[in-house]
Amino acid sequence: xxxxxxxxxxxxxxxxxxxxxxxxxxxxxxxxxxxxxxxxxxxxxxxxxxxxxxxxxxxxxxxxxxxxxxxxxxxxxxxxxxxxxxxxxxxxxxxxxxxxxxxxxxxxxxxxxxxxxxxxxxxxxxxxxxxxxxxxxxxxxxxxxxxxxxxxxxxxxxxxxxxxxxxxxxxxxxxxxxxxxxxxxxxxxxxxxxxxxxxxxxxxxxxxxxxxxxxxxxxxxxxxxxxxxxxxxxxxxxxxxxxxxxxxxxxxxxxxxxxxxxxxxxxxxxxxxxxxxxxxxxxxxxxxxxxxxxxxxxxxxxxxxxxxxxxxxxxxxxxxxxxxxxxxxxxxxxxxxxxxxxxxxxxxxxxxxxxxxxxxxxxxxxxxxxxxxxxxxxxxxxxxxxxxxxxxxxxxxxxxxxxxxxxxxxxxxxxxxxxxxxxxxxxxxxxxxxxxxxxxxxxxxxxxxxxxxxxxxxxxxxxxxxxxxxxxxxxxxxxxxxxxxxxxxxxxxxxxxxxxxxxxxxxxxxxxxxxxxxxxxxxxxxxxxxxxxxxxxxxxxxxxxxxxxxxxxxxxxxxxxxxxxxxxxxxxxxxxxxxxxxxxxxxxxxxxxxxxxxxxxxxxxxxxxxxxxxxxxxxxxxxxxxxxxxxxxxxxxxxxxxxxxxxxxxxxxxxxxxxxxxxxxxxxxxxxxxxxxxxxxxxxxxxxxxxxxxxxxxxxxxxxxxxxxxxxxxxxxxxxxxxxxxxxx
Amino acid sequence: xxxxxxxxxxxxxxxxxxxxxxxxxxxxxxxxxxxxxxxxxxxxxxxxxxxxxxxxxxxxxxxxxxxxxxxxx
Lengths: 729, 73
Hints:
The complex is a heterodimer of chains A (729) and B (73).
Chain A lengths: L2 E7 L5 H9 L3 E5 L6 E7 L2 E8 L11 H13 L3 E7 L3 H11 L6 E6 L1 H6 L3 E2 L1 H8 L2 E4 L8 H14 L11 H13 L9 H9 L3 H6 L7 H11 L3 H20 E2 L8 H9 L5 H18 L1 H13 L3 E4 L3 E4 L1 H11 L4 H19 L2 H17 L1 H13 L9 H7 L3 H6 L7 H11 L8 H11 L6 H21 L2 H4 L6 E3 L8 H35 E4 L2 E4 L7 H9 L11 H9 L6 H9 L13 H7 L2 H13 L4 H11 L2 H29 L6 H18 L12 H10 L1
Parallel strand pairs in A: 1-4, 1-5, 5-6, 6-8
Antiparallel strand pairs in A: 2-3, 3-4, 7-9, 10-11, 13-14
Chain B lengths: L10 E8 L3 H9 L7 E7 L6 E5 L2 E5 L1 H4 L2 E3 L1
Antiparallel strand pairs in B: 1-2, 1-5, 2-3, 3-4
């Protein structure tokens, strides 16, 4: 059996750098079962028998955040052979708080004090020997960035794991607390091993329900806690936390020598400017503009166009000189040469290659964006983004960090959704994923141009109104969703560290970029590919003259039959014509397809991007109000398959994925219904059943928007299921 | 009762007690704001909320609504 070492530490302590340094490229990235918390493990470079498990970055082992519960569940149930605890030497006090908790788990602990180079440079000194004595574990000074001391730290952790000597905490609480803990320990069932008793006793004393749920026999200690709280005039959680910090303060006094307390660090100087009351917003706007300009307006779009229209299109020019044919062209020529059957050729070209292209076409742009995000996160600016924007976004249940996904979403929803990765809080992230695609993306612009041109004489208010509808949908959804059962469960405390600024390494930025890009290809790829093939199949096959086979004309295909079957659904929205229904369905492959589909269905082989050729026909088949309702529906309903794939990837949960897609579609339907029904009423249409339905929908909407609600204060995410699934796996 | 919310920028105060309960309170304590801790109010965000404080040698941001739970002197 190999050795398992868990790497634990605070966020921003250099944990990722240490993990990368220890494991190199031998990494496996996944998710903890059932939750969206990332799980990474890797083999130690110098000893392949040793597996390093990178736990989520946490500040404490409290039961309130998903990361903390995931980490401690792993530590309690899987029992790694040793814990390598990385602490930030420039921020010892708060980092040691987690250490005092890890020491109680009854697992060997080795502490690695990181950023020793920075500590030395500032003139401070840490007495690692003394620190180890006071905490009861071996301490190694390291610099993860420079790779100094990391092998020694790993070596000591492996030795500690082999020795199987559980950590012996030197730290003791006050006599009163110790007496209470002793009493609780003596009441614990025999199923809890001796070395873990202290951990369970402390957690039970803190009234930690999540731990109690996992125990077979929970002793009745209610009166003991009550009495202790009365004697010490504080609640049990506060008593424990206060005593831990008091102890740390006493250790720090003995083992840390500060050179100069008053001097401003470089990071402080940067922050004085960057989050300055007056300069913060202009600087923020400039940074966002740069991110948008490079990853959406210029480099990112060049990369996307190159991949979509070049590699997976007609071809591209290498260095502007050499013609390189696109993959479809090469394959088509190859298939022609071997006289491939037309249906097979169509499957390969229009189904599979188009599907693969839809997946890979987004990757280059995403990689450009991910470089920026990795840099902003690693240098410490992302935390400031949340700090600056929090005031606006928290009102509708989002995080200040939701700004970036939405900004990117105006270009393309797919990288926008992927950008939600930077939001740590699970609830804020899910909310952002669900609402980001309401913002009109680049591919929805042709639909706006089509409707504006065909029905509104190109009126200039149509496009801004589409953005307004998108933003209103985000705000209202935020308010409605945060009151629903799905979201009301978990608390979202915004008590956030603003880490010191530092220059990230190129290696870490590139690694983060690649990990995210790859996870998109792997996890989002399947759904995008399958749905593209499905749409290809239903649009190119159908029944003609009683025979099933390939069809030339889209209106003979199965998709047209599906459109005819579904059209009645859209009658209340004003566009019950099957052609509109089919256009909305093909819009799921890519939103700009809506325009092309109208072109084909109205008998034009090829139309301009804004579909100018079909304006006349469209105007005669729809009223202006119906057209606007069609526009709103296509803006808000389920996004394209690529974005759905991204949603599935980021939600990492089938139920949440369908909840997101379902919510978007229902919202789109409700808003379009109201637009058409009220629009018709005010433009002279009569009052009918539809109007009544719209009034009811509007009333329901307003109720959901304004009903009272109270923020919860405990984590409801089902943690026991995490364990159950782990056991199965 | 004076709370951290009412403290202006560039002032240092000492924590007397934390009120409230549950996740937010525990989080505040976990981040090192406990009885007797010195807290320096560094700045307020450009839009007026949240605030940035220095505690135990590092920078922490918290919302004014949460700062109200922290009694100081």
